[in-house]
Amino acid sequence: MTYKEILDMNRIPAHIAIIMDGNGRWAKLKGQARSLGHQAGAETVHVIAEEAARLGVKYLTLYTFSTENWNRPVDEVSALMALLMDSIEEETFMKNNISFRIIGDIEKLPEDVRNRLQQCINRTSSNTGMCLILALSYSSKWEITEAVRQIARKAQEGTLSINEITEETIDNHLCTNFMPNPDLLIRTGGELRLSNYLLWQCAYAEMYFSDTFWPDFKGEELCKAIYDYQKRERRYGKTSEQL
Fold it and tell me: I want to staple 104 with a disulfide (CB 3.0 to 4.6 A). Which of 17, 130, 138, 238 is the partner?
């Protein structure tokens, strides 16, 4: 029996966020170049996106390239940008009724990459199924800092009172303001940290850490993570008796 067969389809998390880790280590174990690990990881993105859409996930957010990743060797960054261009298959989105969005400091991306991403966003904007979000040139500290700047600017201009600033105000100024917070955060590759990813939004997310490297994280692994999520009791600070 597979994990997919025993899932409660009425309790599929609406929003799953994933830290896709382990491409380089996967390639190293196979005696391959890191670039081949990233290519294998890109293929897994399509597999997981299609499986998540079939399961009824509403939002899937993938940590694709962090602000810290700009510090990697120039050749690797260039290869990742080229891979990003090549791996965006609009037909996959159209076939599965998936819309496409991006979050992050997009202005840092090369112009041709930005144009390619925008083309996919525009073409899939009318799709009504799952929304696939790539976090590109993203970090949570960057995002929160930008939100604070926007709020401070409004306060300085007199359009927002300091006493009116609430958690909702901050939510509305984050680049994730168009979707609910993650229900389930998955990290592959065996590391046990959040790596500056959706720190505000994951305050009450259930976390699942997998030892499987991202290129090997296929549909059954996703179902295993969701099954683990479904066994948990989400209390949000309350007691079991209050639920």
Answer: 138
The pTM (predicted TM-score) of the whole model is: 0.94
User: How far is residue 132's CA from residue 16's CA, in Å, rounded to a whole number?
Assistant: 10
For residue 101, which phi and psi values (nearest 5 degrees)? -140, 165
pLDDT of 40-92, one tens digit each? Answer: 999 999 999 999 999 999 999 999 999 999 998 888 898 889 888 888 888 88
Nearest CA among 210, 188, 224, 207 for reference residue 5: 224
Query: What residue spans of the chain are helical by DSSP H?
Result: 23-29, 34-55, 74-87, 90-95, 111-124, 140-157, 167-173, 219-230
Active site residues: 21, 69
Q: Two tokens at 240?
A: 């079991």
Q: How far apart are CA 181 and CA 204, in angstroms?
A: 9
**What is the pLDDT, as a whole number, of residue 92?**
86
49: phi then psi, degrees, rounded to nearest 5: -60, -45
Q: Is the pLDDT of residue 186 over 90?
A: yes
What SS3 class is residue 234? coil
C-beta separation of 26 from 197 below 8 A: no
Q: How far apart are CA 17 and CA 6, in angstroms?
A: 22
